[in-house]
Amino acid sequence: MKVKLSNISYANTIPFGYGFHKNAYIQKNTLFYSHYPAQGGELMQQNAIDISIIPVAAIPFIPNARIISNYCIAAQGKVDSVLLCSTVPREKIMHIALDYQSRTSNVLVQIIAKKLWNISPHYSVSTPKTNMHTDADAYVIIGDRALQNAHKYPYVYDLAEEWYQLHSLPFVFACWVANTTISDTYQEEFEQSLEHGVSHIQESINFAAQQHTWNMYEYLTQRIVYFLEPSIRTQVISLFYKEAAELGLLPDLLIKGS
User: Which residues form the domain of 92?
Assistant: First the structure.
């Protein structure tokens, strides 16, 4: 039976997709799906997929979820694609619209607002119809839409950069997760695919053949961090879970995985 694998449909996962494309074993033994970040957790909760790159805030809500790779979506400071875009300075923000496509970034902005900026705004969640068209002062915008729309706002706060200012640590946005048994062979080939893609950024960009308004090579090589040592990854995610729990945004959580 083929493994059901879903990848995020954002530019930052282009290297992963290229790695899968270049691996004959993965191609032969996989059914591929695509989603935006918040959908991945929902699909895995429904057992509709076997492996996916899951926002770290969604992992604890997936039964039997475990991290299966050291490759991830992370940032060491500025990331450019996880933003709070505002019409007013942060100290005047009264209403933040959270991004319907996100789980982790919606929690992250609330941690930063409380612990770094010392503000307590009202939060609402956008929908595909209302996204960036509400009466909010500021909007969480992630992924390609952040890269495309940031220039429209007078005040832009990079949430990964703000996290680094708060803790002097990288931030982990999403990890590769499985909630079912995956054969050793598949898992080895899967890891090799990720390594190949991340090691061939320019080739992956050429293969994707997408038109963008930003410098894709710079974004994927200077903003996105694809590999973290397990100890650092665990430290960062544990701290994120702890602070989210303190604010009542997530329950007390444990991390399972590699």
Answer: 82-167
> Cβ contacts of residue 256 below 8 Å, gap of 6+?
65, 66, 67
Largest CA distance in the chain: 55
Residue 255 domain flag: no
Q: Where are the alpha helices (DSSP H) in 116-183?
A: 143-149, 159-167
Q: What angle do CA 5, 11, 14 make, to 5 degrees?
A: 50
DSSP of 49-107: -SEEEEETTTGGGSTT-EEEEEEEEEESS--SSEEEEESS-GGG--EEEEPTT-SHHHH
d(CA 233, CA 221): 19
Total domains in the fold of the chain: 2
pLDDT band for position 130 (cuts 50, 70, 90): low
Least Cα distance to 4 among 32, 28, 39 occurs for: 32
- pLDDT digits 0-9 by tens, 14-47: 999 999 999 999 999 999 999 887 788 889 989 9
Same domain, 132 and 158: yes
